[in-house]
Design brief:
The protein folds into two domains: 6-161, Sulfate adenylyltransferase (Roll), CATH 3.10.400; 168-414, Rossmann fold, CATH 3.40.50.620. The strands form four sheets. Strands 1, 2, 3, 4, 5 and 6 form a six-stranded mixed beta sheet that branches. A five-stranded parallel beta sheet has the order 10-9-8-11-12, sandwiched between helices. A three-stranded antiparallel beta sheet has the order 14-13-15, with helices on one face. The longest helix is centred in the middle third of the chain and has 15 residues, at 200-214. Helix 5 (122-130) packs antiparallel against helix 6 and helix 10 crosses helix 11 (312-318). Helices cover 33% and strands 19% of the residues. The protein is an alpha/beta fold. Bound molecules: zinc ion (ZN). Residues 338, 340-341, 345, 350, 352 line the site of zinc ion.
Amino acid sequence: MAEIGHGGREIVERILAPAEAKKKIKGLKAIPIRSQLANEVIDLAYGWFTPLQGFMGKADADGVCRNMALADGTVWSIPILFDITEAEISDYGIKDGDSVLLTYMDNPMAIFDIEEIWDYDMQDMCQCVYGTAEDKHPGVARTCGYKEKFLGGKITLVNRPKINPPYDPYFIPPLEMRKKFKEKGWSAIVVHQTRNVPHTGHEWLMKGAWAQAYGGLPIEKPLCGVLVNAIIGAKRKGDYIDEAIILCQDELRKSGYFGDHNHLTSLTFWDMRYAGPKEAVFHACIRVNLGLTHHMYGRDHAGVGDYYDPYDAHRLLQGIPREKLKITPVYSMNWLYCPHCAEITSEGLCNHKKEWQKFSGTLIRSIVQDGVKPPRLIFRPEVFDLVMECGEKYGFGSPFVTDQYLENRTPVFSIGPLSA
Ligand SMILES: [Zn+2]
């Protein structure tokens, strides 16, 4: 039976077997791509971006900017673009209707059937997607930094990525993910979007969302799961290192704060755009494709600085009819520590507001930097030990991204020579 994803369309999978791939790539011009595009080639080929089958043409990108929808009306909020310079177009001799071979790490990765060469007013695109064209917004800087032309057309993967340890168990593409959910018998699954190592505030965010999704289930099908879906892509200095994020999230299951019966950790390749509300809608689209029924949105979801009101994302999502975006939103509250209750509590729950201690990113960061084990109500000891260990093992002495990490880290995936 076909698996149906976002927009009511069958989950896209565009991957050739090695023998066929070898034949098809013969004689194609090779164009090397950077990591952002390699991430997106994987997302396209494995169906994370269903119904997209390739990089956008102008009509889709314009629809996304004007109406937050593809040309056919499917909800979509972030343009998926393949940028190229005019000089490259003429050097490679690229024309509409050409097929080229995209290479990554000097090896063949995907065939790109070019249907359209186009351009766009990028200031206008930024204003539409980010609500600003200020280049101190990191998404705007990325988008306005694109080369001046775009190529639209379908992508076919010719060489599957080799996912390097310790990430390999966490690469679960949409069709595989849906199979896993069936095996687990989960009839509701709520996703936790993260770029963090979890403290107990995050843990309770997940537990609260789990209870909310669980609450709606029929008694004969009572199983409900939490999927942690870490966004893995370009890093900024001071972020947690990817190894710490993914392993520490999974540690909550391994140490029994959750279990196999209700918790799974996975990753999605994507370079964050920090588009706030628009990025929240985009996250929802890809999570529909992963087979999720519920999506958590925290305060200031995927925001940056003070560009977005903390609840802009909730407002935008509430305005989209459910039949157009088939995933139930779970708007999460802020969990915090109440010394009076001596427990983790939620905003609006107990009446000791004056005593509440919020989980500030800065506080947690200073705890981790000091390396002194915090109270278990703030940070689970197993998670704390593991974040320290990850710093030693993968982070050149720090669980936070440094220049040394950026230069010398093991890539999350590699593209090797094409073997048949
Ligand atoms: Zn209290």
